[in-house]
TrEMBL record:
Residues 1-20 form the signal peptide. This is C-type lectin domain-containing protein. Keywords: Disulfide bond, Signal. Pfam families: Lectin_C. Transmembrane segments: none annotated. InterPro entries: C-type_lectin-like (IPR001304), C-type_lectin-like/link_sf (IPR016186), C-type_lectin_CS (IPR018378), CTDL_fold (IPR016187). PANTHER family: HL04814P, RE43931P-RELATED.
Amino acid sequence: ELAVPCLVAVCAVIAVGSPAINEVRRPNNNNNRPGRFLSLPVPNKCTQRPKEFFYRGHNYFFSGHQPQYRNLRVDWLDARNICREYCMDLVSMEGQEENNIVFRLIQQGDVPYIWTSGRLCDFKGCENRRDLEPKSLYGWFWSATRQKMAPTNTVPNGFSFNPWSATGHKKVQQPDNAEFDINGTNESCLAVLNNVYNDGIAWHDVACYHEKPFICEDNEELLNYVAATNRGIRL
């Protein structure tokens, strides 16, 4: 049976299966947009997706290296949707080698920041989950693969260091949800920042409405879906 890819703004399957979630975007002073759905893949775009570099069976591209996106800065969900139309999703750094590839791209290009698929499970469907409490430690997952992350105060499996920054706006270990104290907006999305806090290149929790460039990575679920529904397509 063909599994239709998750089409709502956040699909969380962490530890146990969860229902599909429609994430309603938190209003803030700069933006007051309604909840939005994830985009379906576009078969023609999937066949012509940019393939800038390759790692362990997946193609990747950085938006800043593509002419049509060179100067584009978008919020987290719009970044996901651009990737998804290409049968891709935001990058998930699930091992140190993959993380190093992303860090190296940022360093070599002097890129100030990028979005990843990292997301905090703080929306409807995540409540009353003891395995996610406290959320700052246990509530993070890779939305592209729906894999739960290691506790944020530990070294992830396969890493030799903790990629979360040791500092930030509040001068404490990330994630710190600092913007909540400023305007009541949760920092629910994971960005990689380039020495913004004199901390080198590191992971930070950031409010999802901020606009950044992004890295897309092949998404097997979307590629398989398009292959199964478009006989003979070459991906």
